[in-house]
Amino acid sequence: MEIERKFLVKQIPKDYKTYPRIVMTQAYLNVNPVVRIRKENDDYVLTYKVGGGLSRQECNLPLDAQSFDHLLEKADGIILNKTRYQIPLSQTLTAELDLFFGDYQGLSYVEVEFASEEEALAFVPPNWFGKEVTYDHKFSNSSLSQGKIPLSELQ
């Protein structure tokens, strides 16, 4: 089970580059249900997701580079590229700041994953977080991959 909230970014923290980062390439083989492949630095993952909003079922399976490259050729829509910075918020919470490059250059958002829905609903975002978009499907990566929403509508 994945429980997360997603926000636009009001102001990127000045020290964001000092935190661990993951360079990601991800593509979608299907968007309903979500079947995604992702390269995270030197790791490769196939993900299956069902549902949306605050909570959803998620299953991750490891891939190797050859399988990733083979599946990437079968991607449906835009291949997404972003750098994720992992910024600690507390002893248990981490803000995942995603800065897109490529087709969505300039788009940024931040996600926080939680252990329970109660914890998620009680969360008070820091000042650098912007508008919450957890329930706005156009901000899901699977929707972004379909390229139907202009960047100007996403900021």
Describe what you observe in this structure.
This protein has 155 residues and is mostly beta strands. The protein has one domain: Hypothetical Protein Pfu-838710-001 (Beta Barrel), CATH 2.40.320. The chain contains three helices and nine strands; from the N terminus they run βββββαβββαβα. Strand 4 and strand 5 form a beta hairpin. The chain is globular, with a radius of gyration of 15 Å. The mean pLDDT is 95.
Summarize the structure.
By secondary structure, the chain is mostly beta strands. The chain is built from three helices and nine strands, in the order E-E-E-E-E-H-E-E-E-H-E-H.
Beta-strand segment tally? 9
For the biggest sheet, the summary is: 8 strands, antiparallel, barrel
Order of helices and strands: EEEEEHEEEHEH
CATH architecture: Beta Barrel
Structural class: mainly beta
Number of individual domains = 1
Question: Alpha-carbon distance between the termini?
Answer: 28 Å
CATH superfamily: Hypothetical Protein Pfu-838710-001
Shape: globular
- Mean pLDDT equals 95
**Which fold name is given in CATH as the topology?**
Hypothetical Protein Pfu-838710-001
CATH class annotation:
Mainly Beta
Helix content: 10-25%
Main-sheet strand order equals 1-5-4-3-2-6-7-8
Q: Given the structure, what is the number of helices? A: 3
| Uncertain stretches of 5 or more adjacent residues | none
What integer value in Å does the Rg equal? 15 Å
What share of residues are in beta strands? over 45%
